[in-house]
Write a structure and sequence with these properties.
By secondary structure, the chain is an alpha+beta fold. It folds into three domains: about 1-80 and about 125-180, no CATH class; about 195-275, Orthogonal Bundle (Helix Hairpins), CATH 1.10.287; about 280-410, Heat Shock Protein 90 (2-Layer Sandwich). The protein is about 60% helix and about 15% strand. It has helices at about 1-15, 20-70, 85-95, 130-180, 195-240, 245-275, 285-295, 315-330, 355-360, 380-390; strands spanning about 95-105, 105-115, 120-125, 280-285, 300-305, 310, 335-340, 345-350, 395-400, 405-410. Strands 5-7-8-10-9 form a five-stranded mixed β-sheet, covered by helices on one side. Strand 2 (about 105-115) and strand 3 form a beta hairpin. Helix 2 (about 20-70) packs antiparallel against helix 4. The two termini are about 30 Å apart.
Length: about 425
């Protein structure tokens, strides 16, 4: 339960997930719209305020001109010095002009000026109220935009959860198929015609195709092995009747190799068909492994730590150990070492190591990987992996840092895996 909560929290906080990318895209679009609307509203309001200020300045200028005609005082409509820019504009145009003075934020004015009788008559209109209203409007636009983002972004993340959930289901199904469960299906094809439905249908179609091909391959392997078994028995009998000699011994050796290959193919076909069942018993691992190594007739360094006991199928365990040892001698280099530590059995050689393809995808029949690992049919490790699955063990492959291939068998006490 705790692990599931941690995984869910990691998915939720993963900023690379599609959920947050969609939310970020919505946030960016919302910000762009809010910025555009804010700029338009700001400029429109500013232009309106400036227009109103100019209108008020024009009216005030008319009143100031009447006062000037009556009193002769040209400085009655303003306090302070007329801005030089406004003076230059009035003198260059010779008619009424306005100028907004925003040099001091605490004192904002709209100036109006007009030349009369060789003098410049000017008026001042306070624009502080309008500019403060404009700043307040800007603040309200920003606050409203942030409030909308606070609502829209979580809603976008929640809306993205449904396609995210469907994509995670497709990903889980693909991983199950990659792990060998060809019965896994997404089964979400009827939820609409979007891209996720297309991906789901493609994954299901791929699984169907892979399953059909695998079943066809398994049937072919089983049929070939069974068809070859009858003529092979004839070859075995005939080889035994040949007169002794070097040629006869060579024929018998090739017949033995062919018989072993056919027996391996039959064993693989049974493993593929799920016909194998573990016959469990509590066995001393040191004795079982030692006997398995002895029967191979190959030179092996055996090391056992303690008196390990495991609940497993001794016959299948013997088959796994024998195949791993034979593979180490065939494709690696001496010394070959077998170590029993608790319920873990490690088989190591000092050759070129397992090829990268085998480490990535596991053992494949009729594929030995790198050429420097020697020739073979690729069945030994395939059988070992299949038998390990039957007894509920985990067989992993790796390479030692200083060179050599390492096959590690982890036995699981009391846990069986029936295929």
């Amino acid at each position: 339960m705790g692990h599931a909560i941690v995984q869910a929290a990691r998915r939720l906080l993963n900023w690379r997930s599609l959920r947050w990318k969609i939310a970020a895209l919505v946030a960016m679009a919302s910000c762009a719209v809010a910025l555009a609307v804010g700029i338009l509203v700001h400029r429109s309001t500013l232009e309106r305020s400036m227009s109103l200020g100019e209108g008020r300045a024009y009216v005030a200028m008319g009143e100031a001109e009447n006062d000037y005609r009556r009193t002769g005082d040209a400085s009655a409509g303003y306090s302070g010095e007329i801005p030089p820019a406004l003076l230059q504009q009035v003198r260059s145009t010779g008619r009424f002009s306005t100028w907004y003075d925003g040099r001091q934020p605490e004192s904002l004015w709209m100036w109006g000026a007009e030349p009369i009788d060789g003098q410049v008559l000017a008026v001042q209109i306070d624009m502080g109220t309008e500019m403060r209203s404009l700043r307040a409007l800007d603040r309200h636009i920003v606050m409203a935009s942030l409030a909308v983002l606070a609502v829209v972004v979580p809603l976008a993340a929640l809306a993205a959860e449904l396609p995210n959930r469907r994509l995670r289901r497709v990903a889980r199904t693909a991983r199950r198929i990659a792990d060998g469960d060809l019965n896994a299906r997404t089964r979400v094809g009827g939820r609409g015609g979007d891209e996720i439905t297309e991906i789901s249908a493609a994954v299901d179609s791929m699984a169907d195709s892979l399953q059909d091909r695998l079943l066809s391959e398994q049937r072919f392997t089983a049929d070939v092995a069974h068809e070859l078994r009858t003529p092979l028995m004839g070859l075995v009998t005939s080889a035994e009747l040949l007169p002794e000699g070097e040629a006869t011994e060579l024929v018998r050796d090739r017949v033995r190799v062919l018989r072993a290959l056919i027996e391996d193919l039959l064993e693989i076909s049974r493993l593929d068909a799920g016909a194998e069942r573990a016959d469990r018993a509590s066995v001393p691992l040191d004795q079982v492994v030692e006997e398995s190594v002895r029967r191979t007739g190959l030179q092996v360094r055996l090391a056992v730590n303690g008196d390990p006991v495991a609940d497993t199928d001794p016959r299948r365990l013997d088959r796994i150990v024998a195949n791993l040892v034979a593979n180490a001698h065939r494709h690696g280099r001496s010394p070959v070492e077998v170590t029993v530590n608790g319920t873990t059995i490690v088989v190591r050689d000092h050759g070129p190591g397992f090829p990268d393809e085998l480490l990535a995808t596991g053992p494949q029949r009729f594929r030995t990987g790198a050429a420097e690992r020697g020739r073979g049919h690729g069945l030994g490790l395939t059988i070992a992996a299949g038998q390990a699955q039957v007894i509920g063990a985990e067989l992993t492959f790796g390479n030692a840092p200083d060179g050599g291939a390492i096959a590690t068998l982890h036995l699981r006490d009391g846990v069986g895996s029936e295929s």
